[in-house]
Design brief:
Shape: elongated
Strand content: 5-15%
Radius of gyration: 51 Å
Helix content: 40-55%
Number of helices: 27
Length: 862
């Protein structure tokens, strides 16, 4: 919105009149009174000189007081306070000069010596004033620069003095036939005022803050008025026709008033943030003194009209030589300006590269104290660069990393090469720790640097990815171990179940041991459930993926979930049918939902809300990068949330590790969430967790949206009753207990059984027996020759041979994903006597054809 403009009468030179306060208004009133007195002339001639001088008595003291008040203002830059301190001293000298002038005119009768002393004080005032004005400039930072500027102003002063002498004072002095030392101060006063004006122009060209620029503009305007006044006063003073109350006094009063208003404006506005931009050609001021040098030859040439021809030839040669020197200096100045501009652009280029680099650059001394910090630190850690300068680097280092950082600094100080990269944690402005990787370079020998340069970059994302990779490798290693354990355990369970079945058949129906045998079989079923979870975690469970609506799966097991949760827990299920499907095993999806629901229930032992929601989402690139395992694609989501205890970050870091649990002993196996993790990974999905202590937990499962094609499950074959036969069967299994138990069972049903301990031995028996073997029953995981190789060789050489594959898990992905469904029959360990005999009979009778009748791992039928 547009801000209303202030009335025009309240602005002067573009500055708000209120900006100079009551002190400025008082100065204006004083000047107005003085002007009215001069113009109206209300006093007699005898009193006019005394009153005119009296007006100037308080001026210097008041100006000094106003300038001194600015020296006490902590808002100002130290450079500005130093400038106002010198201006205050100059105004004190001005006050002394003014008072001596008044005393001389009123009481001493216009003594020339006293007037000369007054002029000398005025000259001192100009010198001190010029020094104070130049203090505002940010350009003179070195002694040589200050000397150069002083010489430039001296050149201007001398040239101006020569002009003033030749064209203003010399004719009057010659006319009066008076030439003594009292003329010198009058001669130098206009030159001094001009130097003051140019000093202010020099400062404004260099640039300063806006408030100081406006204040100096007022002071400069006052100097211009004083310059005009001195130019009028000087001839009058030499001719002896000046007296107090002259109209020229108005110019001086206006000039002093303008300078007083400048000091008052600075006092009321301090230092503003906005800066006045420096001139695009600050070097132009450097050429100004040479113009004054050339101007200084004008009085010399004017005076040479009375010289002899020989003297004039020498003068002309001197002028020509001087012109050549000036020309050479101008060319050198232009060349230096070009070099300065090139250097400035190069410095700006490198400064911009450092400040906008993704890495941060830090320079520390031998003791580890920060001497320089690049601007990228603010983006990386949140600190302004100057915040760290002067502080020890170890002040932001994590306590656990201090030893390694200190060792890096010691190594850098005593080495001439780059140090090895060191990772450490730095505390940012919010108190969090940021992972940095730093390389140190010793540049203590470089006078431009004289320190150790630390180049650091944020590796938090890389560290997180490395942690995820390490976790994935650890989970894979544990998964392989779990798969191996499950394989051996399934073999043991198969042997136990077969042996218990044999013993149970041999016992009388009334025997008490029959119930014990059934308890053994029930224990085998519980062990089978445990191995199934291990296989799911190791991604070696045999599955049958189909196109499934996840919402339909949740709705199908909703009654079971409601029976499992406590009555005090509110169950909120949001599972509307979704347009997208997932390609997964239905049993595994049910296991995911049940495991997450039970985990949430256990987190709310008293009361709470359990929410299960199914939805769809399209993951963008930003979300995919934030969640490990996600890709930029469409997903079906399952979110299970609770309002329970929540979890710490430490617990979350071990959440999906097998056998990790926070429950009491005997309350959980620690395989629930690890199984969920493995199933989700097997489906090509991802899982994210959000939790904090006391805020509950939320698990979100992302399953990839599937295409339109489905691999339908094989139709379930009816389970026939256990029937026997007379055929010859070859049993191949590397586990003696399994092989022996299966052999005894099949022999009980009338079959003739041959057995082998590995695939190579089984293949040799097939070659020897030929077509007399009706069926091959083989395990998949065996040494020497695997079941897969045995099946391939047997099927190729004996096309009429019926084959049944048995296994608790397999490394073969084609069998695990059900891709051999049209090849051979399959029975999963641990199986029951009924499953075994019925499957063999169906295959021998041809009811199963050549189809692989795959059963979920560990499933039982009786």
């Amino acid at each position: 919105m547009n801000r209303p403009r202030r009335p025009l009468e309240r602005r002067l030179f573009g500055v708000a009149a209120a900006g100079w306060g009551w002190q400025g208004w008082s100065a204006i009133a004083f000047v107005v009174v003085h002007a009215l007195w001069l113009l109206l002339d209300p006093t007699p001639a005898s009193a006019r000189e005394a009153i005119g001088n009296a007006f100037f008595i308080p001026v210097g003291v008041l100006m000094a007081a106003m300038a001194w008040m600015n020296t006490r203002d902590e808002r100002l830059h130290p450079r500005a306070r130093r400038g106002w301190r010198r201006l205050a001293a100059a105004y004190v000298v001005l006050g002394i000069s003014t008072n001596l002038w008044a005393v001389n005119d009123l009481f001493l009768g216009h003594v020339r010596v006293t007037r000369a002393v007054v002029d000398l004080f005025s000259l001192a005032y100009i010198v001190i004033l010029t020094g104070g004005l130049l203090s505002f400039s940010p350009g003179q930072r070195t002694r040589s620069a200050r000397v150069r500027v002083s010489l430039e102003f001296a050149m201007i002063g001398i040239a101006t003095t020569m002009v003033v002498w030749q064209f203003m004072i010399r004719p009057r002095v010659l006319a009066a036939a008076q030439l003594d030392w009292t003329v010198v101060p009058s001669l130098l006063s206009p030159a001094g005022e001009l130097i003051g004006v140019l000093a202010i122009a020099h400062v404004l060209m260099r640039g300063t803050d806006r408030a100081s620029a406006i204040a100096l503009s007022f002071v400069g305007a006052g100097q211009v008025l004083n310059l005009i006044g001195d130019s009028i006063y000087t001839p009058l003073a030499v001719a002896g026709t000046y007296s107090g109350g002259h109209p020229v006094d108005l110019l001086w009063m206006l000039g002093d008033g303008a300078m007083f208003i400048g000091a008052a404006y600075q006092f009321h506005n301090g230092a503003t943030e906005a800066r006045v931009r420096a001139s695009t050609d600050p070097g132009g001021f450097i050429r100004l003194p040479y113009l004054f040098v050339l101007g200084g030859f004008l009085p010399i040439l004017s005076a040479s009209s009375h010289w002899s021809r020989g003297d004039r030839m020498i003068l002309y040669a001197t002028v020509l030589l001087t012109l050549m020197i000036v020309a050479r200096q101008v060319v050198a100045l232009r060349e230096n300006a070009r070099l300065d501009e090139d250097r400035r652009l190069q410095e700006a280029r490198f400064r911009s590269l450092v400040q906008h680099s993704s890495d941060t650059v830090t320079i520390v001394d031998e003791n580890g104290t920060v001497r320089y910090q690049s601007a990228s630190c603010e983006r990386l850690l949140g600190y302004p660069p100057q915040h760290l300068v002067g502080e020890p680097l170890l002040g932001i280092v994590h306590p656990a990393d201090m030893a390694s950082v200190d060792a890096m600094l010691v190594e850098a100080v005593h080495s001439a090469e780059h140090t090895r990269p060191v990772r450490w944690r730095a505390c940012n402005q919010t108190g969090d720790w940021v992972q940095l990787e730093t390389i140190a370079t010793n540049l203590l020998h470089d006078p431009a640097i004289h320190g150790v340069v630390l180049t650091s970059r944020d590796v938090s994302e890389r560290v997180a990815l490395e942690s995820q990779l390490l976790q994935a490798q650890k989970m894979e290693a544990v998964g392989r171990l779990a798969g191996g354990i499950a394989h051996d355990f399934n073999n043991l369970l198969t042997a136990i179940r077969m042996t218990a079945a044999i013993v149970a058949e041999d016992l009388p129906a009334s025997s008490g041991l029959a119930e014990e045998m059934r308890e053994i079989e029930r224990s085998v079923d519980r062990g089978s459930s445990l191995t199934r979870q291990l296989l799911a975690f190791s991604k070696k469970e045999l599955i049958q993926p189909t196109l499934i609506d996840l919402a339909e799966v949740v709705a199908g097991i909703e009654p079971m979930i409601r029976r499992l949760v406590a009555k005090d827990v509110t169950l909120d299920i949001r599972a509307t049918l979704q347009p997208w499907r997932v390609l997964a095993d239905r049993g595994q999806l049910e296991q995911i939902v049940m495991n997450l629901a039970l985990n949430a229930r256990d987190a709310m032992p008293e009361h709470g809300t359990l929410t299960i929601a199914v939805g769809v989402t399209s993951v963008d690139l930003v979300t995919a990068r934030a969640t490990p395992g996600l890709l930029q694609r469409d997903y079906v989501t399952l979110t299970v949330s609770d309002t329970g205890y929540g979890m710490t970050s430490e617990v979350q870091s071990h959440l999906f590790e097998p056998f990790f649990t926070t429950k009491a002993v005997g309350k959980g196996t620690g395989l629930g969430l690890s199984t969920v993790y493995a199933i989700v990974q097997q489906c090509g999905g991802a899982i994210s967790v959000r939790s904090a202590p006391g805020e509950g937990a939320s698990f979100t499962i992302y399953l990839p949206r599937a295409g339109s094609e489905s691999r339908a499950p094989a139709p379930a074959a009816g389970v026939a009753g256990p029937t026997g036969g007379r055929e010859r069967i070859l049993v191949v299994d590397d586990e003696e207990s399994v092989r022996s138990a299966v052999r005894r069972i099949l022999q009980r049903y009338g079959y003739e059984v041959l057995d082998a301990a590995d695939g190579a031995e089984g293949l040799e028996i097939l070659r020897r027996e030929g077509d007399r073997v009706a069926l091959l029953l083989t395990d998949m995981v065996m040494p020497v020759m695997s079941g897969r190789e045995l099946v391939e060789h047997a099927a190729q050489r004996f096309p009429e041979l019926r084959i049944v594959v048995m296994s608790g898990h397999t490394e073969d992905p084609s069998l695990r994903q059900g891709q051999l469904a049209n090849e051979h029959a399959f029975i999963a360990k641990p199986f029951t006597v009924t499953d075994l005999s019925a499957t063999i009979r169906r295959v021998l009778d041809g009811s199963a054809g050549t189809r692989l009748d795959a059963t979920p791992a560990g499933a039982t039928t009786g």
